[in-house]
Amino acid sequence: MQILLAVISGVVFGAGLAISGMINPAKVLNFFDIAGSWDPSLIFVMAGALAVSLPGYWLARRRPAPVFSQRYFLPAKSDIDLRLIGGAALFGLGWGLSGLCPGPAIASLTTLSVTPLIFLAAMAAGMMAVSLRLPAPRDPKSLPDSAC
Asked: Which of 27, 37, 42, 132 could form a Cys-Cys staple with 31, CB 3.0–4.6 A?
């Protein structure tokens, strides 16, 4: 049942992105072009998403548990650190340069364009690179001499 609901949610989300035109990178890039051919429609898409999600979150927080799960899966961290700022900056840079972010890139695969394939391949490579990095040493004394 959870997988079916996830698929249905993904299809509805992707359809919303397609209907609103957000799978078109030019539309998103025009939103960022405030000095040129600015297109404010992304603001309305985001406002519509907030209008739907905020009451949903409010109602969900009043329940002891989700309907189709034993517990909520909410982020445990709430502090703002360098990793969060760096990740947000990298996400924004990629979005601003390509006009795509993960959701619209996946939804735009239906257009059979090569652009979302390149974007998703680069995103997957970045995710793999981060998962392969070595953990930071816990003790500064364990750093090799060349790192000092």
From this structure: 42
